């Protein structure tokens, strides 16, 4: 059996702890963020989504409170009257003719339960209007969420494309470095001219500058992703995930028909029309009489705690025979609001259909660009390999080789750019047609 003293145990403990710290804080360790993680953090932390959620809660509370006019109202009140001059008999307040003494003081206590029997539809219009406001804000919440989701996807794909462009420029730098080394070797052997070496050196320096620019662009787009994720992401971090050609099947009519029935912007405007219709009904209720009922108990006396009691049940009827021209023109104004909202709905539908058509064309073009640039990369690679082989054999010229290398680097960058633009185009099409994940 092996025995270890406390000194040995302490040494092992320090060694293990040092190893763990070295792993945790290893220089160069990078936190990679996927699209799913960016979307999850962005939607959970978005300030505009939280703001709209509060508007939804407010409209819900307003709808709940709109039940109050349907409920009976209970009120209590008391008053004290001090007559200065002349003296007033207590019977003036109490109705008690048996009281013969005069008094300057009168105390009153009143309790009443009242309930409106009929109001021409005013209560119903206000409650339904509050309900449609609630529904409208819930649809606006979906619109805000879709906008945030698109912004996250767009920023992520742009950052991912920028990352791949950095990699392509690193490849271009390696190619130019290889050409420079080859040209320098030929120059030292006396085969290549000084001008060829200088041209290769210029191209090498240009590749280094391009790589530096690409790295800064990538860092800039990473900051956009970090900002949209809201939650603080520790440095350093980058984005990871596949950047492949997107696949989508759907025609314009199918997308348009779906959007015109399901898109939140359109449903929001429909709810706004319903709300304004309730405002019109509320204005129209001013043309109807109001019928109220009240059960009331009144106590009046010259003492602080009055004992004289009067009970009454009251049915009251009121109707403004003439109160100016406001009722009529208020109705006309409310109807104009309804008609204007209907026109806004048609305009929203038109813009939705147009956005879908444009987004679909952009997506189709971006997919065609991916295929064309992919073919261009193959041709540029073949051309570069051929010219590089000829130059190694001393048959080609440096200008053609450098130009072919530059064309190849440009084709690779264009291919990567077409890939991330195609994914961004599909994301916008999903937003315009309201398709995809709507959890």
Describe what you observe in this structure.
This protein has 439 residues and is α+β, with helices and mostly antiparallel strands. The chain has one domain (54-433): Outer membrane efflux proteins (OEP), CATH 1.20.1600. It is 66% helix and 13% strand. It has 10 helices and 8 strands. The protein has helices at 6-24, 35-45, 47-65, 91-94, 122-188, 194-229, 252-262, 264-284, 326-392, 398-433, and strands at residues 31-33, 73-82, 88-89, 102-103, 105-118, 237-239, 290-301, 309-318. The strands form 3 sheets. A 4-stranded antiparallel sheet has the order 2-5-7-8. Strands 1-6 form a two-stranded parallel ribbon. It is elongated, with a radius of gyration of 40 Å. The chain starts with 5 loop residues before the first helix and ends in a 6-residue tail after the last helix. Residues 9-28 and 89-94 have low confidence and may be disordered.
What is the element string, with H for helices and E for strands? Answer: HEHHEEHEEHHEHHEEHH
Radius of gyration: 40 Å
Structural class by sheet pairing and helices: alpha+beta
- How many distinct helices? 10
The named CATH superfamily: Outer membrane efflux proteins (OEP)
> What is the CATH first-level class name?
Mainly Alpha
Give the quaternary arrangement of the chains.
single chain
Question: What's the quick description here?
Answer:
This protein has 439 residues and is an alpha+beta fold. Helices cover 66% and strands 13% of the residues.
List the helices and strands and how they pair.
Elements: H1 6-24, E1 31-33, H2 35-45, H3 47-65, E2 73-82, E3 88-89, H4 91-94, E4 102-103, E5 105-118, H5 122-188, H6 194-229, E6 237-239, H7 252-262, H8 264-284, E7 290-301, E8 309-318, H9 326-392, H10 398-433
Parallel strand pairs: 1-6
Antiparallel strand pairs: 2-5, 3-4, 5-7, 7-8
